[in-house]
Amino acid sequence: RIGNVDPNDGMAAAPGMTNMVHTRTATTSTTASAEEGNAGFVASLCPFISPEASILRVKQYPMTETILDLKANLEYGNDTWRSLFLSLNGARMLLRVAVLHQTAANQGTPDAIDAVLAVLDCFDSLLTRQDTFRTLLNDVAGMHYFLAGFLTNADRNILLLTLELLAKLVVRRRRTYCAVLRAILGMPYKPIPWFSDSAKEEGRGGEQKE
Predict the structure, then answer these.
(1) Contact 120, 150 (CB under 8 A)
(2) Domain of life of the organism in this record (predicted)?
């Protein structure tokens, strides 16, 4: 359990799952402009469905393919789509998916490693954007502890992406450096008053470094 997130809440069992590989192709006219071709390619990768449907799909089939489809929506959707996704507890759903695959990923199971990487990519997309960074940290208490849990993973790609996400937390939010160190050292969780800085700082966006 991470905070008040139950890893098994509403999630399908992973062991019996098999990855479904879908081959998608972008069909564009030979006379189309470069911009039209690029738009067609993006559309082929990103099935823009509602946030509710996207969350339900990942809950039912918590595998790499569905998580990557969600990441495409997070990447190419608008601010409203991402805001609605977070308001529907989409970030907590992603936590449950990661926890579901974490043990198998630590044991080196390729499918589980790919699934964890896909989840971390989703969080990378959310942490990178100004419109979702603050909401994500407010919704998911102990995000730094969740990420630190993957530092014991033997997979190099998971380690690198985890370190990158932790670095973003440290750079973009005050008081996070000590919190990240506490998480890495396995010290007890201590909530961070993310948004308790002065009104003057809030007026500047609250994105100062220490």
Answers:
(1) yes
(2) Eukaryota
